[in-house]
Description:
globular
Amino acid sequence: MDVILAINVGSSSLKFQLFRIAADGPALHVRGALDGIGTRPRLHVRAADGTTLVERTFDAADVADLPAAIGEARHWLSTLDGLSLRAIGHRVVHGGPDFSRPVLIDAAVLARLASFEHLAPLHQPGNLVPIRLAMEIDPD
Length: 140
């Protein structure tokens, strides 16, 4: 099944949703969050029908930062069989004067987004972490 992953990174949480690519538009498959990053990390995931798929807590040291949270979420998502990730969507807090609509991210766009870190220093750097990780894992 082809899916799109939508993520939203905050200062202490990572929220995600997987959408099936369907003829009549995207259809929710699962939604989850890993919150309490660095303090009381908790992963909770629900199916589209509301069924709980996972409810797990971690020691703070095991999910101490955003890269560790992304790793845990990625690990859990990898346990889902039969999925083919086609795209990742991510909300970035500040696109400056250049980005007010969705864009495909390449190295030039990422560098431009990084240039806006001074506009949102508490959020923009963290928003770029999952983009960098995704580009390292699969540049396409």
